[in-house]
Amino acid sequence: MEIVKAVQGNLVHGNPRVCFAAFNSDSRGVHPGDLFWALKGERFDGHDFVSQAIRQGASGVVVQKGYTISVEDRPEIAVIAVDNTLRALGDLAAWWRRQHTVKLAAITGSSGKTTAKEMTATILEMGNKTLKNPGNHNNLIGLPVTLLKLDESHKRAVIEMGMNHKGEIARLTQIADPDTAAILNVGMAHLEGLGDIDGVAEAKTELIAQSSPDAKIILNGDDAVLMRHASQFDREFVTFGMKKGNDIRAVHIETVALNGIRFDLSCGDDTWPIQLPTSGIHNVKNALAAAAIALCLNEPAENIVKGLRTFKGVKGRFQCIPLEGDVLLIDDTYNANPFALEATLLSALKMVNKDGRLIVGLGDMLELGEAAVSAHQEAGSRIAKSGASWLFFMGTHGENVKKGAISAGMPSNQVIISETHDELTTNIIQKTRSNDVIFLKGSRKMQFEKVSDGLEMHFKRSFAKE
Ligand code: ADP
Description:
Protein-Tyrosine Phosphatase, Chain A; 6-stranded mixed sheet; alpha/beta; about 35% helix; 9-stranded mixed sheet
């Protein structure tokens, strides 16, 4: 059985010639003929569901060595034992990926991975069937599970690589063996376990270290920390960014509508006009990364132009939602870290017209380790300096944010801390006037989509303005 060899396991029971219909690590989704993979998660251990998977008709199971299972009376069931089921899953995906000639692009960075992946996919899909990871399934489970969906019909694949500890990107790169690999940026995110920004840069540049020598490496040339860390590798890079000197640049950037940016994509002697149906200068950078990937994979430039024009945006990532009463809601509630806040606050400010004010609704930014207190003070100060009229906060760092905002000159009665989503929503509604821009951002666990939903319910969407 090739699987047993690929995962360096032992077939401890069953017929070596068995074939599986599909692979599954969630016992609830197991169908007859499937191979069930017992993974240990934070809350559940898949080994507790092996019997259930077999009852549902699984033809085989992959378990940790030492795990005992009574299937003596079921000779048709294959039991494969491995040292570590997570490691084995990666090994299987690595083997499966190498059975396919698909051109694969990998994307990592502190912020923008999902957006850049979706933009890249819309370009690649113009010419070829493309596999992409769903949502943000970018870890040591999501990435291998995505790769196991590869089949002969896929000519392109684009996958994100996320991490919260050293060594994770290296392992993901070994599994995925990218033909093209992009690092979007290095910022204050997932500091727990990585220490500081240099720790983040070291972890992200594992993508360079582990990519094959033939792979094209794409870097954000405007990111000084990233470029400093990358310079220790003796290889050529393709760079993107706004500044002169980058291989792929955005020039003549203009905001054309509430949900639209236009710019010229410049590469060598070529220039192509790009219309991006989304807002935020950070999204121009994500589009540049997507275009750079496409160019490295020799996609025709017209597919880049057409693909980016049809990009649909991603829920909770700087979505501009016009509300009744000429209020604009920027739903950036998917996630928050200091780096993304800095980038998107600038983009949000640009959306405020001369009669309007900026209202910021911020939630805790998590996973910052020892930097959490100073990062929240800094966030308060940054928001105050941006000229925001109101700062609403919910989370454990209210006092830190307030301290930072007041020290940067914001009157204390303009910083309002709420205990619940409902209270926060009501507080924002009370202070909002016509022409205001409400910018909402918080870490995933803060569930700020409840606030954006509440605001949408109150003000109602104004479709006429879109
Ligand atoms: P990730 O997958 O890396 O978490 P997403 O594409 O899901 O990134 O975007 C999450 C948030 O990160 C967005 O809502 C936005 O606030 C911010 N963001 C997106 N792209 C960038 C970028 N290029 N630079 C800085 N911040 C960004």
